[in-house]
Write a structure and sequence with these properties.
By secondary structure, the protein is mainly alpha-helical. The chain contains 17 helices and no strands. 22% of the residues are buried.
Length: 374
């Protein structure tokens, strides 16, 4: 009840504040007219004094009197129209009615369409309502509040972790999986789920930490499809597409027809296959335009991940000239020529500017149109 009293009071204050200029307009305008008339009368008196002292000619004085008279007439006419005219009064009445109609109409619509009788429901009360009637955000908030008070509840962390992942909160999902593993011990499913959360947090890149999680999962269960899939993705992102294809094919062959991972593996294989049916040595235009069964987002994520993984491997081990060729070609295919130029500079620095490898890479870069530094 207190809320509605305060709402009505604030609405009344706001309406009066808007209406006040309309209510005062007539009086303010009248005061302004009287002030201007007094100024013009003073000007006429000063004009007569200047004529008497001979400071202005009679002709100029007559012209000045006429101009001041015209201004006085216009001012009086405007004052009458504003203060006594029906138009001025009606305009103010319409404006006042419009201001008053806004809160009345809005309150009426809310009473008809809204739920004014619904009691207040603060956060603590929402956290205790029937779960079947709560939204996902409310359920997550309830779980977080519970785990804040009971951090040793392993079951709670295990339930919350995949929800975090579905919401795109991969960092929170990884933390929840780590907490679950710390409390209950590792399992293939938990280690693989942790790795997938780390991949999501890295934007689709199978990082070293994520790959370690998948390897731990395979040590527990060598047939775990999630871990096998992402290990193959790691090989593809390194540029070892032939090995990745073989791993995915072996994985798909051993899965039942209704397994969702069998379909995912097939899509991944399609993403590696070029137009001629051979596995390309590098991510090329065919890698991007092929794989019609994959969504554009999934295809782009895979190609970008392969290039990023290859770039990261060459930063650690820059001695592979063929890998440098693949990286340059990949950046050009993706339209990232500036990054291709930076990669070329790193390669030349690794091999030495006067080495045979540097000469070979420079010639190859020229054929690709890669910009070279000084």
């Amino acid at each position: 009840m207190l809320f509605w009293v305060l709402a009505a009071l604030l609405t009344l204050i706001a309406s009066l504040a808007v209406m006040l200029p309309f209510l005062r307009r007539r009086g303010d305008r009248s005061l302004g007219v009287e002030h201007d008339l007094a100024v013009y009368r003073d000007q006429l008196a000063e004009l007569e004094q200047e004529v008497g002292r001979g400071l202005i000619s009679k002709a100029d004085a007559a012209e000045a009197r006429a101009e001041i008279g015209r201004r006085i007439l216009r001012l009086r006419g405007a004052g009458k129209a504003d203060s006594g005219g029906a138009g001025g009064r009606s305009a103010r009445a319409i404006a006042a009615a419009a201001v008053l109609a806004v809160p009345l109409v809005s309150w009426g619509l809310y009473a008809f369409l809204g739920s004014p009788g619904m009691p207040a429901l603060p956060l603590q009360a929402r956290l205790t309502i029937d779960p079947s009637q709560a939204s996902l955000d409310e359920l997550v908030a309830r779980a977080e509040a519970h785990l804040a008070d009971n951090p040793q509840d392993a079951r709670g962390w295990e339930v919350l972790a995949p929800i975090y992942a579905r919401l795109g909160r991969y960092g929170d999902a990884a933390a929840a999986y780590r907490r679950t593993i710390a409390l209950t011990g590792p399992s293939a499913a938990r280690e693989a789920a942790l790795g997938e959360a780390l991949v999501g947090e890295a934007g689709g890149i199978v990082t070293a930490e994520a790959e370690a999680g998948f390897e731990r999962a395979l040590e527990i269960d060598a047939a775990n499809p999630r871990a096998r899939f992402f290990i193959a993705m790691a090989r593809a992102q390194e540029g070892n597409t032939a090995e990745a294809r073989a791993m995915w094919e072996e994985m798909a062959a051993g899965l039942p027809q209704d397994s969702p991972w069998k379909e995912v593996a097939g899509q991944a294989i399609a993403g590696l296959t070029g137009s001629g049916g051979e596995v390309p040595e590098e991510p090329s235009e065919a890698d991007i335009t092929a794989a019609e069964e994959m969504t554009p987002e999934a295809r782009q994520e895979m190609v970008e991940g392969m290039v990023a993984r290859l770039d990261a491997r060459l930063r650690e081990d820059p001695a592979d000239i063929e890998a440098w060729r693949r990286l340059l070609r990949s950046y050009v295919v993706l339209g990232r020529r500036d990054e291709a130029g930076e990669a070329l500079e790193r390669a030349l620095a690794a091999f030495g500017a006067d080495s045979k490898e540097a000469e070979t890479l420079t010639e190859y870069a020229e054929t690709l149109g890669v910009p070279q530094g000084e």
